[in-house]
Design a protein that fits this description.
Distance between the termini: 49 Å
Order of helices and strands: HEHEEEEHHHEEEEHEHHHHEHEHHH
Helix content: 25-40%
Structural class: alpha+beta
Number of helices: 14
Largest sheet: 12 strands, antiparallel
Length: 381
């Protein structure tokens, strides 16, 4: 092999080390548009720079309800899917209801609901909301968006100032469209497709334009990373995931710089921690039993790591989602922390049980996690 080829390989390895991850990884980055702007502004710039296009769509989320007897309202909000000139997905830009602190009204400025005519569609039944999303046109104006839904039920759309409603023949509510509350156009969660190489470069292609437009990191921001769930559908690997995020929670938060203001983070249920320490044979039958049992322990997506898709018989997104990375608007910074997470996830695929942290994890959490990822820390018996 010639010295030129060796130099090329060295440069290639260096690029992989500094610019990417080894696992196929999807990333979600929470940003905030400046006052007067919105997530569509970023979508338009990303499309223009790539010779691509923007398609408006709906994003599904939920929020606590102020209506007596209704615990949660689920809603559809404006989202924007960006593709490049060859039609390949670049990013999806959506609202994030956890972003609130930076949306306080600006003194002397009177913001009105319905920025750009935007609205949300609210419903108290997830099945009805999926039906609404299937039939409603996200480009339709507020007064018209529910008309196809009304036709399905043989009903009419009731129009009000800044709102529209469809009830069925008995008067039961189907869905309501309401003007977007002031400021809710500003949160912008950048959701990437699964990235297989040059992760930092791909993220910078999305984040550099955001910085140029004045986007910032909101107070409650986090970064979420998704890796393929398949390898973790195994009793030993799943148990190691639980041990890592349950027993190493404080060192992980310290080493990664987790944002304490981030909402919808929580420890894994104690019952799940106990469950994985029971005997589950490394067989399909053992995994099936662990999956069934995990459904009974109160597992939700709103934890430091989202394991719900692993135990679901019909996963919507077949991933492990790590939710404890802090907010950032720099692709290299995101990848640097994601690389720490990736090394630990790969350690979870080792059949050896992840040991509990020792005293060194308190004064040197980064070093302790590094030793764990390298396999230099074992269970002491």
């Amino acid at each position: 092999m010639t010295s030129g080829m060796l130099d090329h390989l060295h440069r290639e390895e260096t690029t992989i080390e500094t610019d990417g991850l080894t696992l196929r990884t999807g990333v979600e980055i929470e940003l905030l548009a400046p006052v007067g702007s919105d997530r569509q502004a970023l979508a338009d710039v990303l499309a223009a720079r790539s010779g691509g296009a923007v398609r408006r769509s709906f994003h599904t989320d939920s929020e606590p309800s102020a209506v007596p007897g209704v615990g949660v309202f689920r809603h559809l909000s404006p989202a924007f899917d960006v593709v490049d000139g060859r039609g390949r997905p670049l990013a999806r830009l959506v609202d994030d209801v956890t972003i609130e602190a930076d949306l306080a009204p600006v003194p002397g400025r009177r913001d009105l609901p319905g920025h750009r005519g935007w609205y949300r569609v609210l419903c108290d039944d997830p099945r009805l909301l999926r039906l609404v999303e299937r039939h409603a046109d996200p480009d339709a104006p507020l007064a018209e968006v529910l008309r196809p839904v009304a036709d399905l039920f043989g009903a009419t759309v009731e129009a009000f100032p800044g709102a529209a409603r469809v009830n069925d023949a008995t008067g039961a509510s189907i869905a309501v469209a309401m003007a977007l509350p002031p400021g809710r156009e500003r949160p912008c969660e950048v959701v990437t497709p699964p990235l297989e190489r040059a992760h930092a470069r791909a993220l910078e292609n999305l984040l550099a334009p955001a910085r140029d437009l004045g986007f910032t990191v909101p107070h409650e921001a986090a970064v979420h990373v998704h890796v393929d769930g398949g390898p973790f559908r195994d009793p030993a690997a799943f148990a190691n995931l639980v041990r890592l995020f349950a027993h190493w929670r404080e060192p992980l938060w310290e080493a990664l710089g987790t944002n304490p203001a981030c909402r919808r983070l929580a420890p894994l249920p104690g019952a799940l921690v106990d469950l994985v320490e029971r005997d589950h044979p490394p067989t399909p039958e053992g995994w099936a039993r662990l999956q069934r049992d995990a459904h009974t322990v109160g597992l939700t997506k709103y934890a430091d790591v989202n394991l719900t898709q692993l135990v679901s018989p019909r996963p919507l997104r077949d991933t492990v989602e790590v939710r404890v990375l802090p907010g950032s608007i720099d692709g290299h910074d995101v990848v640097r922390r994601a690389r720490v997470v990736e090394r630990l996830l790969l350690r979870c695929l080792d059949a050896r049980p992840v040991p509990p942290p020792g005293a060194d994890a308190v004064h040197d959490p980064t070093g302790a996690l590094d030793a764990l990822a390298d396999g230099r820390r074992e269970v002491t018996r």
